[in-house]
């Protein structure tokens, strides 16, 4: 029988399932042994079963292109990514610490601004922020938590170090795919779940609902929670509808709401008007309220900011959280942890050059062929330059952009992202990946056990975003035998 690892090459990257000697890591041993017993044909059939189930369940995402919006089935690989529970305990603590510090920063920026007065964070960076919302000055959300839901992207370098690559604090997406990935794997491989101690992830909707309920400004055993969606053409609409259904919350578009003369938010239902206590918004700030932000928005709720500032409704994530969802601000998070929490960071940042600094900019321009350059406020892998893989012309164009708007660019060394075995045809090949855990914060904090592992399906690619050809894997946090 042909072995599924027969063509697996030794590489310079850290592999999540295999050691440098090509042996299974302790947390992946039972998994890989079982895969070898099943053989290539059985694995190929189970991959086809997974793909069929994804199509049947309508698990999709939308790709925006010049040709129009294209709905595609969620790309999924049946070989999970494994991590030990012991390592995860440390990562989880680091994620809680990070979001706590970020929420202190956001609350400070919109109120006392001590971080500016104490010269911990440069005032000119705030003045150049595209996501600072003056309308949010003076507001204190409940529990001091502005970013109630965060998706932080983690990567592992060749030496095994786990870094935080970025924090997504505005409207982070992907958690529904994490949950569906696990549901599919349980159906495909029930025998492995019976064999291994894999920590569960399916309590996330309950945790999310509980966190949102804690934000309610009205005392009630069952506050009214609504998910505000831009509608069916949004790339994450599947997730909006999925989470609303799982939480027992209302799924509504902007036109379904109204704000009355007392600044209370109501939802139009077939039974009449229903007062809303908490809105889990999946609409960007710019389109949230045409009275305050873009007056041409047709997907927001007119008067919503008045209601939020008056305290009659809670919004998660709060308007204005994007001030910390900025790759330039990212570089200061370790200092925020020291400043606000009086602690040392548990998880490190990737070393980062700020192009607004003269010395950093000169270094970046002289080493564009070695660095990854990112704009401060893009997402989805768009607008970035991977220097070692770019042409001379591409690097020259980026050099001009940096000189024209240095505040808008950071640069980082090109990491050798870790890999994991991925089913390609009848065998396993290494593919680069990252990990997006989800962190909740209100009265208490919560971290998913694992998260959404995103994988670059093309050989050698470092781009894991689904909109650019990436896929996903289930993430297993495995308790090792003592």
From TrEMBL:
Gene3D superfamilies: 3.30.1490.270, 3.40.50.11290
Domain Circularly permuted ATP-grasp type, first and last residues per copy: 80-456
UniProt protein name: Circularly permuted type 2 ATP-grasp protein
Organism per entry: Igneacidithiobacillus copahuensis
């Amino acid at each position: 029988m042909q072995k599924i690892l027969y063509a697996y090459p030794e590489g310079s990257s850290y592999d999540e399932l295999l050691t440098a000697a090509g042996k299974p890591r302790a947390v992946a041993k039972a998994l890989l042994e079982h895969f070898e017993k099943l053989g290539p044909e059985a694995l190929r059939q189970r991959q086809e079963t997974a793909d069929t189930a994804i199509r049947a369940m309508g698990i999709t995402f939308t790709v925006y292109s010049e040709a129009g919006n294209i709905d595609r089935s969620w790309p999924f690989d049946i070989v999970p990514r494994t991590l030990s529970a012991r390592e995860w305990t440390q990562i989880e603590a680091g994620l809680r610490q990070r979001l706590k510090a970020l929420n202190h920063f956001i609350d400070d920026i919109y109120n006392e601004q001590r971080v500016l007065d104490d010269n911990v964070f440069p005032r000119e960076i705030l003045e150049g922020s595209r996501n600072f919302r003056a309308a949010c000055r003076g507001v204190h959300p409940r529990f001091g938590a502005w970013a109630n839901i965060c998706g932080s992207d983690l990567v592992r370098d060749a030496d095994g170090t786990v870094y935080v690559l970025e924090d997504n604090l505005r409207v982070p997406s992907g958690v529904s795919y994490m949950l569906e990935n696990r549901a599919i794997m349980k159906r495909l491989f029930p025998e492995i779940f019976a064999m291994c101690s894999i920590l569960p992830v399916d309590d996330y909707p309950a945790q999310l609902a509980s966190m949102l309920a804690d934000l309610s400004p009205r005392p009630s055993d069952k506050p009214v929670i609504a998910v505000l969606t831009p509608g069916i053409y949004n790339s994450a609409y599947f997730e909006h509808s999925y989470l609303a259904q799982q939480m027992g919350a209302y799924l509504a578009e902007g036109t379904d709401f109204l704000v009355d003369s007392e600044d209370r938010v109501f939802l139009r239902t077939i039974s009449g008007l229903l007062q809303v206590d908490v809105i889990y918004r999946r609409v960007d700030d710019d389109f949230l309220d045409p009275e305050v932000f873009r007056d041409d928005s047709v997907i927001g709720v007119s008067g919503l900011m008045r209601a939020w500032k008056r305290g009659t409704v809670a919004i998660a994530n709060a308007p204005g959280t994007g001030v910390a969802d900025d790759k330039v601000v990212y570089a200061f998070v370790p200092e925020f942890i020291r400043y606000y929490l009086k602690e040392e960071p548990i998880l490190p940042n990737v070393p980062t050059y700020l192009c607004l600094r003269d010395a950093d900019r000169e270094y970046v321009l002289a080493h564009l062929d070695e660095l990854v350059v990112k704009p401060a406020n893009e997402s989805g892998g768009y607008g970035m330059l991977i220097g070692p893989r770019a042409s001379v012309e591409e690097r020259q164009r980026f050099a001009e952009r940096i000189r024209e708007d240095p505040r808008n660019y950071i640069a980082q060394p090109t990491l050798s992202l870790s890999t994991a075995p991925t089913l390609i045809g009848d065998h396993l090949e290494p593919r680069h990946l990252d990990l997006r855990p989800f962190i909740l914060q209100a009265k208490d904090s919560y971290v998913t056990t694992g998260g959404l592992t995103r994988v670059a399906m093309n050989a050698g690619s470092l781009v894991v975003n689904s909109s650019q050809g990436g896929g996903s894997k289930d993430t297993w946090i495995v308790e090792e035998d003592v």
